[in-house]
Amino acid sequence: MEIVCLDLEGVLVPEIWIAFANATGIDAFRRTTRDEPDYDKLMHYRIDLLDKHGFTLKQIQDVISTMRPLIGAEEFLDQLRERTQVLILSDTFDQFSRPLMKKLNWPAIFCNSLLEENGRVTGYKMRCPQSKLTTVRALQSCGFDTIAAGDSYYDLGMIRASKAGFLFRSTEEIKKANPDIPAFDTYDDFLAAIFKELD
User: Which CATH number fits domain 2-13+70-111+127-198: 3.40.50.720, 2.60.120.260, 2.60.40.3880, 3.40.50.1000?
Assistant: First the structure.
């Protein structure tokens, strides 16, 4: 039995931190896992920025509440879920994901958690080490064949560990460094590639 494991930001919804950068006018928040392969380093960078500027968790959530899925994402996900089980494996946080999952018709998602004190973000807690790769391997140990896709450095582990893996709307740098991983930029081509693996 197959299960498709998808990244969230950049694949189904816009990048949350880029949206926050746009809302605040602070370009330093634009740095994502497409730019920084070390997730811990990236998150400490973000938390320091939030603290420096005095932003609260609610201010980030207010921006998220205005976000919509990427054009075509809802239809893509609905068609995919008609054929197979889908699990979203994301670097985002429980405190961020709920309004986005509602707009995607409540797919299953595994993500991380933020730590907060008096409304301020003070840290984060990973669901498990190397959460995407660890989850894919756990699913495989339960008898699933995994098909994985994402757009960032942090997705490469689960992509390479899977029966089939794809890059979707990734950067030229990541695609160039991983020429053996099929890369797609449209949902139609992406869906066709996944369906081919399911047949």
Answer: 3.40.50.1000
Q: Which residues of the chain have pLDDT under 70?
A: none
Say if CB 154 and CB 37 are below 8 A apart.
yes
pLDDT computed for residue 8 by the predictor: 97
Per-residue pLDDT tens for 38-81? 889 999 999 999 999 999 999 999 999 999 999 999 999 999 99
Q: Which of 148, 8, 169, 185 has the alpha carbon at shortest distance from 91? A: 8
Residues annotated catalytic, as ranges = 7, 9
Predicted pLDDT of residue 36: 83
Q: Measure Cα distances from 193 to 126, 141, 185, 187 in Å.
A: 31, 24, 12, 10
- Could you list the beta-strand ranges (E) of the chain: 2-6, 85-93, 108-117, 120-125, 145-150, 164-168, 183-184
51/178 Cα distance (integer angstroms): 36
